[in-house]
Structures are given as structure tokens and as C-alpha cells.
Amino acid sequence: MINSIKGGVTAAKGFKAACCAAGIKYKGRTDMAMIYSDAPCAVAGTFTRNVVKAAPVIWDKQIVENVKKAQAVVVNAEQVTDLIGNRLCTGDTEVGLDAALGNDIRRFHTGISYRHCLIWKNGDDHYDFSRPHDIIGRCIRDYLPSEENGGGEFYRLMKESYDVLNYTRAKNNLEKVVAMDAKYKSGEALYLLVDIYVNQKETEKAKTTYEKLVSLYPDTDVAKRASEKMQTIKTNENE
């Protein structure tokens, strides 16, 4: 039998709690709290069984498994940002996928965790794909869409989106590196950024980064390679 105790999380002796409006997502809402214990306490947690886990889930799971004891817990509300693709932010995913793969026929809208939405104008309504929870412990290859089961277009989208996410992740990391040291690896970081911007059709960023590269490393092999990449933009502009 469970007995309800009045007093909330501070009902037990030795616990304190405080909250505030951090304003991370919404303004004027009480959205952050900390629960503190005077002495280290044993910790436990329940986590999703999904094979694909967001980075915060992986982080918290590691703490529970390895630390065993804690003195404080930070709790947030109404400000969850899912991270996927090796800590890639949901917002970046939406921008990257829709910019690269979206068109007048289909648009991408990200949600929370793996719950995302693909709007396909005049698309077929007979597709029925396997839910992640239904195939835990099984070989995913047997459940992928294919030409044989009529899902060839979806399979191609999966492959293309994988490439986009890899580009986006690499772009985020390289932008941080270049912001700290534009001369990192003697211009190779700048060159890789030019390559990514060209491939993702971010023309203005490609031009700005190329100009910085040429100003720092004129008449070098890395500048020559970047120039060859920029020819793709010039060709597209002339068509």
C-alpha cells in the first residue's frame, strides 16, 4: 500500500528545492528547478528501450550507471530539445533536411525524439512501415523500404538524408573550429567548409569562406582546390 506524504519533494528530511524562470525557451515561465540533498543519495532512473537514443538520454544513463550517488538533480520543463545524429540539434536537422531535400512536393517538419513529419503532396497512402518499438532486437535490413515492397523512393530519401545529416554535423563542428582558429590545419578546415557550403547550396557562406581562405593562403594548393569547388557555383549561376 502506498501512503501519500504531504510536502512534495522536500517532505523527507535533508532535501531542499528551488525553481526559477530561466527563459531558455519561453519567457516568464517557471521552467527550471533543482532538488538538493544534504548528503549523497543513491540514484536510479528509467530510460527508453529504443536503440536510437537522444544525447541527453545517453548522458543521464551513463550517470546513473557509473556515478551511483548524487546530491543534486536539475529538472526542466517545456524546453526539451532533442539531439540526434551524434548530438545534432533538432532545429539544425529540420533546416538541413528541408533545405537539401524539400521541394514543392515534399516538406520536412521535425518533432520530438523520432516523431517527425514528412508532408508529401499527392503521395500514395498505402505505405505502412515498421514502428521502431516493434522490431527491437531484429535485423533492421529486413524492415527497410525497398523497390521490391514499393518503398524505393523512401529508401532513397533515407540515404540522401543520411548524407545531409553527416554534412550538417561536420559543418557545425568545422564552424566552431574556424571560429576559434581560422588557420587550423593550414586552411584545410576552411576548405572543407567551402566544400560543404557548395554542396548544400549555401552560396553566400561559400563565397565568404572562400575569400577568407584565399586571403590567408593565396597561391596555395588548398586555395586552388577551393577555387575549383567555387566553379560549381559560377556554373549554376550562369545556367
Mean residue pLDDT: 78
Strand order of the largest sheet: 1-2-3
**What is the share of helical residues?**
40-55%
Category from helices, strands and their pairing: alpha+beta
Q: Helix segment count?
A: 6
Topology pattern, helix = H, strand = E? EEHEEEHEEHHHH
Distance between the termini: 76 Å
Strand content: 15-25%
Major sheet characteristics = 3 strands, antiparallel
- The counted number of beta strands is 7
Low-confidence stretches: 82-89
As a whole number of angstroms, the C-alpha radius of gyration is 24 Å
Shape: extended
How many domains in all? 3
Structure description:
- The chain has six helices and seven strands, in the order ββαβββαββαααα.
- The chain has a three-stranded antiparallel beta sheet with strand order 1-2-3, with no helix packed on it. The protein has a two-stranded antiparallel ribbon with strand order 4-5.
- The longest helix is centred in the C-terminal third of the chain and has 29 residues, at 152-180.
- Helix 4 (188-199) runs antiparallel to helix 5 and helix 4 packs parallel to helix 6 (221-238).
- The protein folds into three domains: 13-80, 4-Layer Sandwich (L-amino peptidase D-ALA esterase/amidase), CATH 3.60.70.12; 85-164, no CATH class; 181-239, no CATH class.
- It is 41% helix and 18% strand.
Annotate the secondary structure layout.
Layout: E1 15-20, E2 32-42, H1 55-66, E3 69-76, E4 83-84, E5 88-89, H2 90-101, E6 106-112, E7 115-120, H3 152-180, H4 188-199, H5 203-216, H6 221-238
Antiparallel strand pairs: 1-2, 2-3, 4-5, 6-7
